[in-house]
């Protein structure tokens, strides 16, 4: 029991660099992902995306091109809780683009997953996908 009680204690304020004043409650608990850890997670995600198969990379880069048009200040992709119908409509329009351009378009599920990943990256400051 003693171990768990020590684990759940907040970090002392003097151990957090660059912060003046009392800390918000969520920053005091172990496992808080601050900006440095988030940047590390995005870098790891981008590295793993480089290992996608060739056809998935092509699909990802095409989705990024289409999403560039929907990436502006005030866009629905930056809403706190994006509307799922709007995002699915965007995915459907991307699927239509693939269906018109290619003989064997990727599945709708794959397009949705890649779209959600790309939106996540953009919402958290990640770079646009490059081949």
Tell me about this structure.
With 131 residues, the protein is an all-alpha fold. 54% of the residues lie in helices and 0% in strands. It starts with a helix and ends in an 8-residue tail after the last helix.
Strand content: under 5%
What string, H for helix and E for strand, traces the elements in order? HHHHH
Total helix count? 5
Q: Segments where pLDDT lies below 50 for 5+ residues?
A: none
Question: What is the rounded distance between the termini?
Answer: 51 Å
Task: Calculate Rg over CA atoms.
Answer: 20 Å
Give the rounded overall mean pLDDT.
79
Number of strands: 0
Task: Describe the main β-sheet briefly.
Answer: none
Give the overall shape, derived from the CA principal axes.
elongated
Helices and strands: which structural class? Answer: mainly alpha
Q: Which percent bin holds the helix content?
A: 40-55%
Blueprint (SSEs and pairs):
Blueprint: H1 2-7, H2 35-49, H3 54-69, H4 84-101, H5 108-123
Helix pairs in contact: 3-5, 4-5
Descriptive keywords:
54% helix; mainly alpha
Question: In a nutshell, what does this entry contain?
Answer:
The protein has 131 residues and is mainly α.
């Amino acid at each position: 029991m003693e171990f768990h009680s020590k684990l759940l204690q907040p970090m002392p304020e003097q151990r957090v660099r660059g912060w003046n004043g009392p800390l918000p409650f969520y920053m005091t608990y172990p496992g808080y992902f601050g900006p440095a850890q988030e940047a590390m997670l995005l870098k790891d995600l981008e590295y793993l995306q480089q290992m996608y198969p060739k056809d998935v990379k092509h699909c990802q880069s095409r989705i990024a091109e289409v999403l560039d048009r929907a990436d502006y200040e005030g866009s629905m992709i930056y809403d706190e809780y994006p509307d799922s119908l709007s995002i699915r409509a965007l995915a459907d329009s991307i699927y239509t683009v693939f269906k018109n351009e290619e003989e064997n378009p990727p599945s709708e599920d794959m397009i949705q997953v890649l779209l959600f990943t790309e939106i996540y990256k953009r919402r958290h400051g990640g770079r646009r996908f490059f081949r």
